[in-house]
Every structure is written in C-alpha cells, then in structure tokens.
Design brief:
The chain has helices at 56-64, 77-85, 93-97, 157-160; strands at 15-16, 18-23, 29-34, 37-41, 46-52, 66-71, 101-103, 110-112, 117-129, 132-144, 164-166, 171-173. The chain has 195 residues and is mainly beta. The protein has a single domain (15-189), classed as Roll (Pnp Oxidase, Chain A), CATH 2.30.110. Belongs to the flavoredoxin family.
C-alpha cells in the first residue's frame, strides 16, 4: 500500500549531476553543480537548468546570456561535489580542482576540458518558478571526448560513466547495467489489434 509522504520531489530520481559553467562579470570562469536540469526540447535542441537567485552563477547567466553544461565522469566525483559546495564569489573553483576552463567556441562561457562532455548553450528564455529560476538554453554545440563515442558517434554511457545524484539522500551513484532496449521490450505486451 502506498502512503502520502507530502509535497516533495525527492522520489523523482535519479537526477543528473550537471556542472554549469559561466564567466562572471569580471570574466572569471566559474562552475556550479545543478541537479535540476535536463533536455526540455528536441527541436531546437534545448536544455533547461534551474538556479536559485542567490547563487553566484545566477547573475552570470543573466549578464552573459550563455552557459555550458558539462558532464563529469565518475573519476571526477570529488571535483563535481566541490562545484556544488562552495560559491564562486568566494573561491576560485578551477584553481582548487586543477580543472581547465576552456573558452567555448560558440558562446561566451567556458567548457571544462577534462570532463568527457561539454554542451554550449545560448540563453533563450527564463521562467520564474518559486525558489528557482529556470534558464532555457538552445544547444549551439556539443563536444564529446572521442574515446567516449560508440560506432554511431553517440556518447556511450558505459564509457562516459556519468555521475547521478540522489536528491534527498545526498548520495552520488554510477549507472547500473542495461536492463532492456527502449521502444522494444514494451512490444512483448502488445497483443491483438488496436482499439
């Protein structure tokens, strides 16, 4: 039997561990961890991230109208965690982690060289949502480490090894094993004709 646990998004897991990078007003690269984010449209390809107004990144997003979404692999879990723990207004996160901020090719925002995936986005819309503001970015470029691509030039999650975050539990996990093929396993339940 299910019980009501109240108004919460905690069971909506896993969340991606997205590292959003921007330049601040002085041109200094900064990055923050954002679990509230993901694909919001296929055409044009777009990503939404939600950021609290008090975050250092918030002002940079509004000023620069650009950001990158960087996907860390499991071996960078400590660095990814640090990006979500401290403020870029007080610390140089790139100096602390030893990671490399590389200027984006199509947007005024840095990518993180060591992370296997970097997606460059131009800000196209903002939406006020309670405690957060959602920033919607149109994808202008997506860079993937060649060693992480499969034969069809897609990022292979088994090679990328992205970090996933469990909201409410404060834990990071890796991906588990493949359990089925999408748009295929469901066919086993189709019997007879359509309605």
């Amino acid at each position: 039997m299910k019980i009501d646990i109240g108004k919460t998004t905690t069971p909506l897991y896993p969340a991606p561990d997205l590292i959003v990078a921007t330049y601040d007003g002085e041109g200094k690269p900064n990055a923050m961890a954002a679990a509230w984010g993901g694909v919001c449209a296929s055409t044009p390809p777009s990503i939404a991230i939600s950021v609290r107004r008090e975050r250092h990144t918030f002002l940079a997003l509004e000023e620069r109208k650009a950001f990158t979404v960087n996907i860390p692999s499991e071996r960078f879990v400590a660095e990814a965690d640090l990006f979500g723990m401290i403020s870029g207004s007080e610390f140089d996160k790139f100096a602390m982690t030893g990671l490399t901020a590389t200027r984006g090719t199509s947007v005024d925002a840095p990518t993180i060289e060591e992370f296997p995936i970097s997606i460059e986005c131009k800000l196209v819309q903002t939406v006020e949502i309670g405690s957060h503001v959602q920033f919607i970015g149109e994808v202008l470029a997506c860079f993937v480490d060649e060693s992480c691509l499969d034969k069809q030039n897609r990022p292979d999650p088994k090679i990328v090894k992205p970090i996933i975050f469990m909201p409410g539990f404060g834990r990071y996990y890796g991906l588990g094993e493949e359990i089925a093929r999408a748009y295929s396993i469901g066919k086993t339940l189709i019997k007879g004709d359509k309605k």
